[in-house]
Design a protein that fits this description.
The protein has about 140 residues and is mainly α. It is built from seven helices and no strands.
């Protein structure tokens, strides 16, 4: 659902559930109709509209079952974009490979530990987003 929100907002160029109060935003998330991104940007293909709206379905069983299924639905709209190559260029080989493996269903996090070991000083700060102990 969250990926659907991000994709919808990237395509539409505006927030999907931005309301004046938190309560109004929560009501919108739960019950407001979700328009296809193409209602705000006519160049969004109908199939991409459908894929994003499926991710935003409020019925859990109607959404793609896995990230891989969502990626398969989006693949026809990716063009020549190579996610793996982009991740390696941004994050470096080991960390990018670990992220791709996790996205593919692997639970082996040892490559992340090798790429970014915990500091030897227990009081030292760790990299944002890679803190140990579930505190991120």
């Amino acid at each position: 659902f969250c990926l659907g929100i991000v994709l919808w907002e990237l395509l539409a160029g505006r927030p999907l559930f931005d309301r004046p109060t938190m309560a109004a935003s929560l009501r919108a998330i739960c019950s407001d109709p979700i328009p296809p991104p193409s209602t705000l940007r006519r160049d969004v293909p109908a199939g991409l509209d459908a894929a994003v709206l499926r991710m935003l379905d409020r019925v859990l069983d109607a959404r793609p079952e896995t990230a891989a299924a969502a990626a398969d639905a989006l693949e026809p709209y990716m063009g020549d974009f190579d996610l793996g190559a982009w991740m390696r260029s941004v994050f470096g080989g080991d960390l990018a490979q670990a992220c791709l493996a996790i996205a593919g269903g692997s639970t082996d996090l040892s490559v992340i530990d090798r790429a970014h070991p915990a500091p030897s000083d227990p009081g030292a700060a760790t990299r944002p987003g890679l803190r140990r102990g579930g505190d991120s």
